[in-house]
């Protein structure tokens, strides 16, 4: 279905004819072959960059799921063995793409064979990090149906991230409908076993071709899918963290609460440094007070026992702009309020310091700690390196997870795999 | 010249044969045509993403200018009229590319026709902002020779930026040699007139194809070139700034002192807000003290008169991690120390607050203010909006620039265009 606004883009014949103007250097073939071995090269690649154009009188349009076109691949890939799956390395057969430009708004959504993006080297995504993304999963339930988990929360955050860097927003329900169709189309990539899923990566990039620093006049939203296995295939394995204050991930008034590419690259060197000292992740501290914010690329929770009353408290940092608004964080909080609070737990979103944790640990009041995120759901923490001491997080030597951590994982998976009927689970129909 | 490390990449024939597996959707032709109209589509596009590979025993190599291959375009572009040039919108005929991977190090440098980059949608540059860049210019002197300005400073910063986000570093002199060759090859794009130049954009992006968050195993360094006219074609035009505290560009321990893409996208919305109120740029304040850091995408200088002594002081913020280490900033400071200090000026890199500027302005002691950066060299400032007041920066109504600002521009241009013999000017031979 073609909308009038697209018609004037015309002249496809001339454009395709010009593709014969190739002048690849002989030596570039070597480089070409390396990547091509991994993924077939398409002769007619899509170009997503375009020149900034004059303002138009046409009304920008929202995403329109009804106009979706689907072109299925003629060369379906072979499935990896479930046990060989590595996070984010292999991808399904297709991708969902929707282009936007400031004159026309969102154009026709397309599902096409998974393929490279062809972009002018001056495209703003390469220079000014006009990029944001989401992480979500599609699960297969016992009836073989495909389910998403709280896609509305991902769409809400995706829109917030996009708006913060002057990229376009969209109707959340429209994109959920398209993602559901895409996930169903790729359902053969979702192993039926518990713990497996299809990781979905909605991504938005600015595609305007100019080095001028300004709002992108065009963008591409795309969704790719990567089959993933359980984060801990042989059961939980507790990690250890390095409390980090020499590098600062996020700050008030910054963008650390948005899921922007900009928040990730700067964390790699500190992560590598922590790993070189034997710690799997950073625990990001903030300010002279050394507030605990989040861990690596997850939110962070601690279970504490009150010094006076002995009452139990599940604590995580508040949404003050320095932590990501995790969907798993929100889910853990909601489940804790529903299922732990009646058992006498206090559920707190509050500031807390590394000193508070160290003191609680020394006094035997740090019950357990875990990271929370889409990849692992929950990730138990054994210890935190801080100022030369190792703060013990409550696990016994033979344990790899605390009781709350394990219960949370089970509750979450029960909902994600449709074993428990719950409004958070979205059936792809 | 081919190096042994490259040989095993092999199988170019098979790779090219696979390019016939095209399966573009009919409707995607429309989208294709839009971009293709701007830039011819090359049938054999280079793919820069490749799969993470197992570790190799080969020794990573540095950039090797001697192995440069040049493939000149068969369809040279027409030159824009100098008066039509818009910053960063039109590009020269060629581009310089050098690929890196962790096994081989830097591979053969190539100058090829300017062309799109073909990248897997899972490439880390799109997701985690593995990208950094430089801004520099090539100038044509009175003898028609091509000159760079302090390229060693750009290379030093480029390496610092790359290292901060786990991208590879390189020999500064090797890349300068290649950039000089590239600039000479494109010299027809540099108009001979004063104020014109060829803006050079060295860029490095992570090209590894994985959604895993870690150090990229491969990268692409490329340089593109855009002919630019004088920033102020009809003479200086003073700008007005909005002092911004609700959004924070940089933070100690963050990456605001590096030239990363990550620092740019988050500044667009605040810039748009300032513009909506009639101010061309943000003046980024920091902390409760409201320290003045930098302006928009430039460093910031103010000329003040001492309240007691009447002595003149040229002030800019110190390199404390919250401001970019500007090459123009460094040059202005050096010229000021050499040429203003003997006239009685004090040259200061020190913290100063917005309140200090407002008080100086109210007392008639704010002599002038200007931004400093590669694009404009210096950009005079008329006023700063702060807490509902307009802080006057010392220009008379009929003036568009202060005396120091004008002298700086002339000194800098004199060196850049080779009119004054100076070690900062690098002759491309």
Automatic annotation (TrEMBL), chains A, B:
Molecular function per GO: branched-chain-amino-acid transaminase activity
InterPro entries listed in its UniProt record: Aminotrans_IV, Aminotrans_IV_CS, Aminotransferase-like, B_amino_transII, BCAT-like_C, BCAT-like_N, BCAT_family
**Region feature Disordered, mapped onto this chain:** 49-79
Q: What is its EC number?
A: 2.6.1.42
Q: Which UniProt keywords apply?
A: Amino-acid biosynthesis, Aminotransferase, Branched-chain amino acid biosynthesis, Pyridoxal phosphate, Transferase
Family matches, as CDD domains: BCAT_beta_family
EC class name: transferase
Family annotation (Pfam families): Aminotran_4
Ranges of Polar residues composition bias in the record: 49-61, 68-78
Q: What's the catalysed reaction?
A: L-valine + 2-oxoglutarate = 3-methyl-2-oxobutanoate + L-glutamate; L-isoleucine + 2-oxoglutarate = (S)-3-methyl-2-oxopentanoate + L-glutamate; L-leucine + 2-oxoglutarate = 4-methyl-2-oxopentanoate + L-glutamate
Which cofactors must be present for this protein to function? pyridoxal 5'-phosphate
NCBIfam families in UniProt: ilvE_II, PRK13357.1
Q: What family does the entry list? A: Belongs to the class-IV pyridoxal-phosphate-dependent aminotransferase family.
The molecule here is called Branched-chain-amino-acid aminotransferase
Q: What is the lineage of its organism?
A: Eukaryota, Fungi, Dikarya, Ascomycota, Pezizomycotina
